[in-house]
Hints:
Strand order of the largest sheet: 8-16-13-12-9-10-11
Largest sheet: 7 strands, mixed
CATH superfamily of the largest domain: Crotonobetainyl-coa:carnitine coa-transferase, domain 1
Strand content: 15-25%
CATH class of the largest domain: Alpha Beta
Shape: globular
Number of helices: 16
Number of domains: 2
Number of strands: 20
Structural class: alpha/beta
CATH architecture of the largest domain: 3-Layer(aba) Sandwich
Radius of gyration: 21 Å
Distance between the termini: 34 Å
Amino acid sequence: MAASVEIPVPPLVQSLSPLLAENVGTAPWTGPRWWWAGPLDVEGLALGSMQMLATAVASYSESTGRRDGIGFTSDSVAAAFASFAHLRINNKPIQGFAPLSGFRRTADGWVRLHANYPHHEAALRAALDVQRPEQVDDAVRQRSSAEVEEAVTARGGLATAVRTPEQWGASAAGQAVAAEPWLRLELRDARPGSAPKPAGGGLLSGLRVLDLTRVIAGPSGSRILGALGADVLRVDPPALPELEDQYVDTGFAKRSAVADLADPDVQPRLRALLAEADVVLTAYRGGSLARLGLDPVSLLTDYPHLAVVSLDAWGGRGPWTERRGFDSIVQAATGIAHLYGSTGNDGAWRPGALPVQALDYATGLGMSAAAVALVAGRPRGIAGAAHLSLARTAQELLRLPGPPPGTKASALPEPALRRGASSYGELTYVPPPLLIRGVQLEYPWVPPPYGSADLSWDQPLR
């Protein structure tokens, strides 16, 4: 399978070079190189991150004594990066951003607000001292962008000034992010072991993944691991339930549990899970898991066999490490929203957004690729951790050469959607974007009821 392209896909897979076996080639793909054709090479980010995961899966297959042809098509990647938009529940589209989320004009520019979660909406209202949603615009217009960002952030909400790429690059936070690699590996020598032996038909069967991620990035990556046969158990905190539509989109092929990891009664069960897990994925603000002993250093000290992959919004260094962030907020802060701005029919300029939440999906694929590659490295005595951030993914996108002048968007075929009955209703959804020996990978089951699983590996997978 060979791609016919004029500009190569960004070599994100090179981030995994220390982990990949020498005889594993880069996963092939077919289809158009461009389809959105905007100011930035979003297609390259999508294809490069997908190629990274496909290559890691091929390396893992080799480590278990199998040889499986792993590839993908560009139209399947485009559909997967828009899975939220394609999802239907009982033939109805799901809710996107909440009414208070989005761009707002300030006294000196623009800000991006995020209030999809109830606790973030409450923080936003408290910071702006408003009682009703319709008061938000007036409250924001009376302040500078920096003042809104500072006030909302201090209350635990999410708001950022819309910056240019130059303003972001000149900031202390931007410089700290730029100094990091897209995928930061922290490897250590270990006694050569073996990858889990496949216990079924899936390439990753026998692999146990404890998924401590939320929102879109981590869960969208781990659902593909579940589709490949891994036993994925996602655990969410009871005090901050996931948005239902968001959970349904990312909940395929995994089990869902709800538990307070800080509860002393939960700790023994959590430690039992960790002792038998192969991979731990985390996606919380910098430092927030350290008090529970769930930061990478603590996890690898207590469980040196684990592959630990962590995600945060703003990177592991710099003044914003403990700040909250989502894809849309990172786009605005780093200058992407400025590049996608446009002038409307009223003659006024307004910031814009990427055609899909590419920072989320690309980072999620990078997480899963790193996890699979770390486990594949066990037979060669490799162990350790990996770290990614949404802001560093944004930086990678900003660094890529844009589409050549005159590049037109390609008309991709309509995705071949799947249908399945669930406890949430009849689902219409995008299948996972991988081909195994030329055959489309499928999700083995639809999302189970939220929080329906126990904190145990010894339970039915469905």
